[in-house]
Amino acid sequence: MKITRTTLAAATTVAAALAVTACAAPDDGTSAAGGPDASATLSAQKVDADAAGLLPADIKDAGVVKVASGVSFPPMEYFDTDNKTVLGFDADLGKALGEVLGVEFDFQNTNFDGIIGGLTAHRYDLGLTSMIDKPERQTQVDFVDYLSSGVTFLVMKGNPDGLTEQSDLCGRAVAVEKAATGDLVADDISKDCEAAGKKPVDKSPLPDQASAIQALQSGRADAVLALDLTLAYNVKQNPDTFEVPAKPFGTLPVGIAFPKDSTGLRDAVAAALKVLQDNGTYDDLLAKWNLTAQALTGAPINAGK
């Protein structure tokens, strides 16, 4: 899989790599660093003629699908220590989808808040970057949903401020990845805070998830608000540094995003995803990245409500 990156990659990579390589006791199925064994490879996929037949002619001729991704969101997507190779569940899933369709998924690192705009401008063919499928996003892009995840928050070990519920974030400094799910949920919590006569969340939107984690570690934030799947990974990698003190706030589908007029590619990817589910590869990938609890049945389109 060919990987490209933007100039932003260097800063975010260092932070992500630190988070990924922090020590923890290894257990079954994990790497020596305590997380999933990113080097574990799965069997190559055969091209599925039915799924590949749905590809638009221009994509088939090019042999490449341009993938927008915010590569600082472990275990979903992050750079290896060479600062070039993209690892994570989404990287593995993209590789497998590409093999089923007979094309290459070319991951291109970009800020999360620019992904939907990049899709609508057709700078990218799809976004594979752990994006929650929400109705307000469906006005701009279509989703093929492939996981389900909740939202919660991360604090320093020992929970020094005693934060255990959403309402505890009222008036607190909360770091989020700009335009990501945590950013949107922080606004919802602020509305509830103000309705209850409390201060809104003191939200700090940052360029990427690694920067949000750094803000917490440096004391510039009291908590990080994000998808539970990435925060649980941070705790697993750094059990003596972080904890998640609250249960997830509901569950939402996570989807692969497409321009609204790219229905051919959307349907081809949905068909390829079903192939991976039927042959067991999807379950193998979930197990590899400790995401079995986030499994989603089928490949529904725009299921977010």
Automatic annotation (TrEMBL):
Keywords: Signal. InterPro entries: Solute-binding_3/MltF_N (IPR001638). Residues 64-293 form the Solute-binding protein family 3/N-terminal domain. CDD domains: PBP2_MidA_like. PROSITE patterns: PROKAR_LIPOPROTEIN (PS51257). It comes from the Bacteria. The keyword Endoplasmic reticulum does not apply. The keyword Iron-sulfur does not apply. Residues 1-24 form the signal peptide. SUPFAM superfamilies: Periplasmic binding protein-like II. SMART domains: PBPb. PANTHER family: ARGININE-BINDING EXTRACELLULAR PROTEIN ARTP (PTHR35936:SF17), MEMBRANE-BOUND LYTIC MUREIN TRANSGLYCOSYLASE F (PTHR35936). This is Polar amino acid transport system substrate-binding protein. It comes from Nocardioides kongjuensis.
